[in-house]
Amino acid sequence: MPYSGTAPPAQQPPTYAYKNPVLYAIGGLFFPPLVLFLMGGDRKTCLIMLGIWVLFLLTVWIFGLGAIFALTNYIWSVVACHQEAVKQNRARGFVP
Length: 96
Known about the structure:
This protein is an all-alpha fold. It has helices spanning 21-30, 32-38, 43-62, 66-91. Helix 1 (21-30) packs antiparallel against helix 4 (66-91), helix 2 (32-38) runs parallel beside helix 4 and helix 3 (43-62) packs antiparallel against helix 4 (66-91). The longest helix is centred in the last third of the chain and has 26 residues, at 66-91. The relative contact order is 0.18.
């Protein structure tokens, strides 16, 4: 087989964009378990947050105490999304 003089294209490593922890925290405020799930966070944490939402919905209609579960879930989601963004940035070499 004759030599054509061109090399096959080399595979480039996947690119990674910096994840702004503040924006992910805000996203976690509006869509609590979804943002953490989509950014590759701990799946067990996402399922627990969904379970808290079920408790929230049940207690709002049955006992009227759902605000406790909703507030807990919002705070937890914001903190978890911020920490996950920082963790992923550090793993990829983006150190603030």
